[in-house]
């Protein structure tokens, strides 16, 4: 049974995060695909925190003694996963920038 | 007709069809300009264009249908074209439908015209499988709810744009799911869109990489993206 204070904090946190993402989308500062990923994550947090008894059941299932341990572990796992994906994306972008640099430089030489 | 018209033909590995598609346009009206956007093809598409003196932009990297088509719109904008027509390089679009497509723009009754397969259900036409049809209906419904205007064939790549839309697309063109998203964007910016009936054929050769939507997964993706796109500020 989660204390009411915590529930309110989670609700506020989720609303703030959703608002942030909507703002980023509005100003075209985030791709649609990634905005959806974050929105789903936040909704996931929202739902799992608010369904009574959901988290304790999952903790039990996964073999955790304390619910908080499970939450931290899952969050850290998600962060590592997201970092991995970002690393892959950044690597791809580095390659694309290299190609563009080469093409532009060769083009400049051709034009002069 | 003294309007400058540009056919934007995005092509990815269309060596089997590109020549026929381009020639069908030339034969119809030699005054219409053509620009093939070679989206990093790994086959002979670029070489074929070169050999037959077809104006082509060879993208340095593959950008996908969204980026490729936008390149065409940027070109159309910079060269002051009055009308830009998106035309598939795989032979699916029927050149004879072009006149119906651009007439509303010539009459200044519309800014953007979509060649739609679904405007007149009775006509004999290549209709996609029924599962796809349901998916398209759902996407149509989403666009309607999010913008107030219905679009019957939101995935059609056969479209014509006037100068104002060319300018808009040169700046704002979606990279993912370009056809439904661009339709939504146009509706939200209150451009005048019209749909006319256009014949389309089965794909004649090669493999369809652009616009291959089969799964419910794609459709769910599109719908969510549409919701997010409706939030964007497009000024």
Fraction of residues in β-strands of chain B: 5-15%
Name the helicity range of chain B. 40-55%
Shape of chain B: globular
Largest interface (CB < 8 Å) = A-B, 15 and 12 residues
Mean pLDDT of chain B: 89
Radius of gyration of chain A: 21 Å
Shape of chain A: elongated
Give a written overview of the molecule.
The complex is a heterodimer of chains A (112) and B (235). Chain A has 112 residues and is mainly alpha-helical. Chain A has helices at 4-26, 32-50, 54-62, 67-111. Chain A starts with a helix and ends with a helix. Chain B is an alpha/beta fold. Chain B has one domain (5-229): Spore Coat Polysaccharide Biosynthesis Protein SpsA, Chain A, CATH 3.90.550.10. Chain B has a seven-stranded mixed sheet, sandwiched between helices. In chain B, helix 1 (18-28) links the parallel strand 1 (5-11) and strand 2 (33-38). The two termini of chain B are 33 Å apart. The mean pLDDT of chain B is 89.
Give a brief description.
The complex is a heterodimer of chains A (112) and B (235). In chain A, 86% of the residues lie in helices and 0% in strands.
How do the strands and helices of this protein lay out in sequence?
The complex is a heterodimer of chains A (112) and B (235).
Chain A: H1 4-26, H2 32-50, H3 54-62, H4 67-111
Chain B: E1 5-11, H1 18-28, E2 33-38, H2 45-51, E3 56-58, H3 64-78, E4 83-86, H4 98-106, E5 112-116, H5 130-147, E6 159-161, H6 163-171, H7 178-188, E7 193-197, H8 216-229
Parallel strand pairs in B: 1-2, 1-4, 2-3, 5-7
Antiparallel strand pairs in B: 4-6, 5-6
Helix pairs in contact in B: 3-6, 5-7, 5-8, 7-8
Features:
heterodimer, A: 112 residues, mainly alpha, 86% helix, B: 235 residues, alpha/beta, Spore Coat Polysaccharide Biosynthesis Protein SpsA, Chain A, seven-stranded mixed β-sheet, 8 helices, globular
């Amino acid at each position: 049974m989660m204390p009411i204070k915590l529930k309110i904090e989670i609700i506020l946190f989720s609303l703030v995060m959703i608002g942030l993402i909507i703002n980023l989308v509005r100003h075209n500062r985030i791709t649609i695909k990634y905005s959806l990923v974050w929105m789903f994550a936040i909704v996931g947090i929202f739902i799992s925190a608010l369904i009574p008894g959901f988290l304790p059941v999952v903790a039990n299932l996964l073999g955790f003694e304390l619910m908080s341990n499970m939450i931290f572990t899952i969050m850290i796992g998600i962060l590592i996963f997201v970092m991995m994906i970002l690393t892959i994306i950044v690597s791809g972008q580095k390659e694309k920038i290299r190609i563009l640099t080469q093409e532009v430089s060769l083009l400049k030489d051709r034009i002069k | 007709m003294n309007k400058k018209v540009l056919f934007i033909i995005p092509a990815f590995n269309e060596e089997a069809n590109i020549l026929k598609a381009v020639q069908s346009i030339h034969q119809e009206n030699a005054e219409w300009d053509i620009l093939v956007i070679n989206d990093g093809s790994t086959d002979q598409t670029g070489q074929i264009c070169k050999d037959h003196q077809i104006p082509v932009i060879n993208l340095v990297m593959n950008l996908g249908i969204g980026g490729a088509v936008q390149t065409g719109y940027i070109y159309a904008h910079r060269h002051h074209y009055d009308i830009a027509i998106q035309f598939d390089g795989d032979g699916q679009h029927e050149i004879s439908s072009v006149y119906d497509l651009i007439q509303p723009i010539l009459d200044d009754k519309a800014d953007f015209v979509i060649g739609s397969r679904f405007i007149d259900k009775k006509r004999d036409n290549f209709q996609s499988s029924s599962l796809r049809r349901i998916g398209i209906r759902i996407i149509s419904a989403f666009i309607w709810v999010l913008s107030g205007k219905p679009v019957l064939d939101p995935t059609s790549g056969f479209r014509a744009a006037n100068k104002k839309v060319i300018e808009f697309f040169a700046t704002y063109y979606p990279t993912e799911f370009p056809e439904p998203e661009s339709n939504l964007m146009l509706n939200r910016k209150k451009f005048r869109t019209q749909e006319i009936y256009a014949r389309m054929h089965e794909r004649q050769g090669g493999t369809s990489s652009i616009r291959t939507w089969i799964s419910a997964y794609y459709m769910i993706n599109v719908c969510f993206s549409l919701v997010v796109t409706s939030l964007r500020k497009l000024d």
